[in-house]
């Protein structure tokens, strides 16, 4: 039986910076603690929302350690360790395992379009150096490479690749995973506007930064599905769908920062080249959040 | 309140030909009768499965009249009347209404990419000449033009445009329709592999030619949704998903003809340039149908 | 040696209608005569610009006969005979040959995506019924199917398929045709904004409706290429490129009608659903034409 | 008048590694020297061919310094300084200027899709810190963001952004640049298979790693264009087009390494996850190179 430590809502914290472009680790812990206490089923530092690719190695290690210490075993921690080179990916994966991560998430970041064989060897090389499970993450919009369902199936032959996160926004990929791989594999949805469709298709969990703003609605959606209550799930989903779409269209870290501020919380600074939402975008977000209440 | 005569499974008959490339109207009635008695909630002649664009005006009228006579009021009939020119579309829509259709379906077929304004005027011109409702049909893959959700919203301001059929395969379009238009509009799913996702998103019905081969599985899916039993719906959906995908990938009329023959039924001939499935495709279909049982 | 009756600028007349939506055949002849006398190297009725798919069979035959009579042997005539069904395509091809066409142009119009095998059989069936050459036309934007270079290569094995018209707008397709097929095949460019790039890549001719508005600039471009004068060709091309782009973006028949009217000529009516350019589009076209002078 | 230090063939060296995954700086200099002596008009270290994103800061600085020392003023040097964060891009741009670069090349690398405003501020921030010119580089396939012609036009308002490198493979973008910006701006082609089309459209130069394998053919193409001899240019282009396509399809560093080895030269190692060409790919490359001779 494959080792699958995650289910339900896996919450992604953002990485806040101070006015001097340094990671604000104290603010990070405050924001993280809120994700933990609002009943997320897991937490995932160093994801897209956490602007992982914009961080130095030292910053990534600082975030990893701070997360695991703050969580303190209450829920499992999934650490993003993707890197352009195989050597660096291994380095960060080993660090995450030692720090106490329940699993690592790896997207085959690419500058050059990698061949399937290069991707398999990349995962294989990392997998052989750690003993915790790997969540293989497919997101052509940020990672630059689109792993076909056939390739994902091959990756799952690597023993500690046990989870797939799909963010293409194509629900048919999830059908394929479910149909072809059966109960041996767990897949997770990373495309926020597909939250309902993915759970309907049988997703084990939802990787999302939305709990920074609307934790109860996110968890309630999962609970309705668990209760086999589609009508209720549909009702809860349509309450939040406009925010989920806005988050994706405007960029996760930008929207979470603005949303937290609208909710009266301090959210620090973004790292350049990322800039805050414009005034009109902020107004639109205010309306969306107001309509959710 | 808008007039919406359809819900559930709307079954699409194929148009069979004889060995001299003439419509085999007797065989058509036999195949149609099977759709009616297997509990489809509606029937839609002259759709994509019925190779409507390949038929002459006289053939279309023959099919329309034969359908309404055969159905004889047991279930509502939705007649496809799309045409490249506005004048011809009006002509066929008037014919369908007189023959007794419950509604007509119109896709803005295009050779030249039509502007939004041209599309609105096209629907408006037809709508003003008939009193039965219109289902506006969006399917860029066959019709050549992609109507944006915003355009669809505008079309719904025409009083007897009361239904939307979405076949883009993008579940987010359905979210938009449901969220923006609320209970005033009914939307129907025309993308077979999205059957479950569309019902989960709130679709009123499913336009499909699959009941020619697996009527019970199609109707059972709808019933599970009506019973708010997502687990059961998911189970039933995954039984049929491979066939639904195969139908779309290989072309509806080609697959239905081959499938009927595999099931021991006579299905007539296709009209050129359409050709029967190859031997290997037929073998693949046999396996898919066998695995469904 | 393959029979290739066309080179240079092949001019596409529009099909004008009168106020009662009937083809205005007298006006058609007037517009056609202008194309002939302004030194186009060939003329092609019933193309996209001539709204061929919007015409009845009788209208198509009327246009074909009027064209050949008016041209009266001065330049070769290429007649569009594409149709969704194979039977109708054969019927129109035979008619065109009898009427005196130098060649016919065929695009595999599709509602259902045709397989490569279906397309080959379609061309083969037509080719076997006529003795004049066929220009195979690839234009996924209007025809709905994209013929790969590999498929085009196969089509060229049919003896009287001797010419390829490429309208994908992808210059690399032309490189492939030139490189793979060498001097055995002639390819023609149907993407107006690629006129210079296509001639630079070795295109034998340019299929275009632009000579309705700017015949001298079109022919001069070809002449500069024939004179191996790239600098001059570039200068001439950049004079007309904005019009070429506008024509494609707004639709050929709509722009030609508006342009003729701006030039003080009568151009008749469009057939619905096509509508005249909006006021702002007409103003934009005026500026473009003014800047060309 | 804008400062434009480049024209003609701008050659991109690869970055070779030793068996311990360290940059092989001596081998780098050997390969670089060959580019210089074979009449390339400029040289560009730390480009895509040089796997810049896979290098550490120290490795990038080592390459920059080694290049400028080796070139020793014989031809101008264009240094790639792109980075995900604005701060790092500034750091590397300042380093390149101090080291003696003639200009820097910047692609707005993105993980999050940057807004136009974020991209403008990114370039503006870097431009204000250096006095040498910037080549703005558009390549959605590797950089992840597609800068529209309108955005490029805005970037050119920054005084020391004086050059545009276009790698979308869309020749119409080049028409726009030439037509809209006239003689004020120089654009460069970065899409190898478009080399002829781009020069025909008026490109000032060609950024390419092909001179590592076929320097004479590359330079001869430019010379034919300079001599206004399109026929000769076409002939030379078609000799090399299959290699240019293969390079793009299989990845520049992988193909250059394999090609050098086929030519009997030592080319070192690739950095993981990049792997050497497969045996069948190598055979294909051998045939392509053989057919060029």
From TrEMBL, chains A, B, C, D:
Gene3D superfamilies: Aldolase class I. The keyword Glycosyltransferase does not apply. InterPro entries: Aldolase_TIM, DapA-like. SUPFAM superfamilies: Aldolase. Keywords: Lyase. It holds the Pfam family DHDPS. It comes from the Bacteria. Belongs to the DapA family. PANTHER family: 4-HYDROXY-2-OXOGLUTARATE ALDOLASE, MITOCHONDRIAL (PTHR12128:SF66), DIHYDRODIPICOLINATE SYNTHASE (PTHR12128). This is Dihydrodipicolinate synthase family protein. It comes from Flavobacterium sediminilitoris.
């Amino acid at each position: 039986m494959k080792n699958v430590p995650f289910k339900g809502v896996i919450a992604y914290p953002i990485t806040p910076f101070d006015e001097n472009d340094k990671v604000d680790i104290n603010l990070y812990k405050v924001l993280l603690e809120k994700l933990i206490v609002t009943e997320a089923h897991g937490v995932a530092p160093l994801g897209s929302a956490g602007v992982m690719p914009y961080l130095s190695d030292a910053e990534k290690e600082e975030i990893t350690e701070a997360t695991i210490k703050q969580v303190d075993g209450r829920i499992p921690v999934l650490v993003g360790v993707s890197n352009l080179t195989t050597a660096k990916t291994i380095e960060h994966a080993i660090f995450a395992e030692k720090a106490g991560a329940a699993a690592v998430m790896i997207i085959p970041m690419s500058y050059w379009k990698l061949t399937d064989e290069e991707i398999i060897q990349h995962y294989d090389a990392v997998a052989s150096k750690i003993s915790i499970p790997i969540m293989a993450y497919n997101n052509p919009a940020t990672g630059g490479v689109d792993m076909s369902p056939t390739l994902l199936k091959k990756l799952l032959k690597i023993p500690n690749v046990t989870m797939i996160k799909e963010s293409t926004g194509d629900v048919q990929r999830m059908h394929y995973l479910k149909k072809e791989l059966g109960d041996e594999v767990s897949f997770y949805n990373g495309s926020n506007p597909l939250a309902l469709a993915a759970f309907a298709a049988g997703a084990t969990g939802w990787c999302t930064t939305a709990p920074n703003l609307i934790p109860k609605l996110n968890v309630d959606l999962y609970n309705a599905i668990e209760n086999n209550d589609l009508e209720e799930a549909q009702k809860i989903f349509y309450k939040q769908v406009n925010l989920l779409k806005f988050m994706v269209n405007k960029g996760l870290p930008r929207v979470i920062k603005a949303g937290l501020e609208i909710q009266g919380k301090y959210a620090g600074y973004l790292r350049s080249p990322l800039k805050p939402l414009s005034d009109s975008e902020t107004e639109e977000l205010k309306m969306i959040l107001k309509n959710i209440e």
